[in-house]
Amino acid sequence: MVDGRSSFAFCQPHYEDVPAPCDDVERAKALTYVHYTTSDLHGRPLGKLVPVYPDECLLNNKVYLCPVFFDLTPNPERMELELDEVAVEAGFGNAPLTPIPSTLSPWFSEDERSRRVICENDLDLSPRTLCRRILERLPMDFKSAFEYEFFIGNIDANTNSFSPAFKSPDIYSQHGLSMGNKILQFSKSVVEECENQNPPIKITTINLEYGPGQVEMPLAPHLGIDSADAGFTFKEIVRRAASDSGYDATFCSSFDGIGCGSGGHFNFSLPNCDEEMSMQFVAGILQHVPGITALCAPSLPCYARQGHWSPTKNDYDEDNRMCCIRGKNDRGNRYFELRLPSSACNPYLVLGAVIACGQEGIEKRLKMSDVEKTDVPNSLSAALTALNEDDHIVEAFGKRFVEIFTNVKRAEIDGFERLLAKGETLENIYVQQYMKWL
């Protein structure tokens, strides 16, 4: 049960059996290129491109990465190898990529010669693997979807600055969405590529948001880990489609440290549970808000959102956008919105954290009145401290994962502070450290 839905087997060709390149033009034209893609700690897609000949199996289990990619900060120019004692001692051996066949999809190719498949590995740092293991312990269906905002414009690598596609706040503007037809065409290409995925990713609506260059595209719900796969894939599609349209898209939560940041709100429901059990699940999440904040808001720019449509307390209310969790009733459809995650969140870590906390709420039969009222950590440093002090979250994700995640994030903070001490502006630092990469 690698993907939580079905078992599968692989064709396992030996590399020595792969035919040598030849001059057969027709055979070369029949090549398929498969992107083996996995998530790093930050939700960035990493992997390898594998050429597959017509007489070979489309997927094989002999693709490897060096596990150093778990020691990268969001800006991959920084590699904190000394922070991972286990990997150093093991000599950084191979991390095999295990493809999930149910995710194999066409990838920006009309002739389907280019494919993409989401992969796991068996390391205890793999976000998708950890998320799947947490999900497997949940005895009921769980439906969820991410509601992403992002910035679109152009990054100047020479000046480390960002020019948004439109300057003034223009929330819900249809004129702005259609101006010059460029943003509209970009949006349509995102929708169409998302529909090509397996399973299809449906974008429910598209609108301009309040911030300059800010766009929102909520996703339709999926069961189980499919929602995190959808969020992970959606981000990659947006960045690729933006590049094809002459833009840069970024899921960095802020590009200047002021004003409205980009959220990654997480909508969820338990379709087979009654109201009492659903509220126990919600109470379980609220009880652990300080501990999961670093997983939901994992970069320094995320904390510029606080107080700007982002929660500051672990509170709940019906249809209240100011609260941490907002109860929703849409034509009889009962679900909840966790407003804590930023657009920079790794969807696998958010889904895993919500399941781990919500399930504990059900098991302990927590009531909303049992939840200790507290503030949301107001910095990444404070959030990392809270994460390490939350025994339940540490147990759910594993001590080694929390240790490496914390070390890499603290290295990220140190790099930020060094640049700030040199007199760099927030915008310059955000572009260097985050916007090019997230």
TrEMBL record:
PROSITE patterns given in the database record: GS_CATALYTIC
Annotated ranges, domain GS catalytic: 127-438
UniProt-listed Gene3D superfamilies: Glutamine synthetase/guanido kinase, catalytic domain (3.30.590.10)
Pfam family, one: Gln-synt_C
Domain of life (superkingdom): Eukaryota
GO CC, one annotated term: cytoplasm
GO molecular-function term, one example from the UniProt record: glutamine synthetase activity
Quaternary structure, from the entry: Dodecamer. Interacts with BFSP2 and VIM.
PANTHER family, alphabetized: GLUTAMINE SYNTHETASE, LENGSIN
Family per similarity comment: Belongs to the glutamine synthetase family.
Functional note: May act as a component of the cytoskeleton or as a chaperone for the reorganization of intermediate filament proteins during terminal differentiation in the lens. Does not seem to have enzymatic activity.
Protein name in the entry: Lengsin
Source organism: Triparma laevis f. longispina
Lineage, highest ranks first: Eukaryota, Sar, Stramenopiles, Ochrophyta, Bolidophyceae
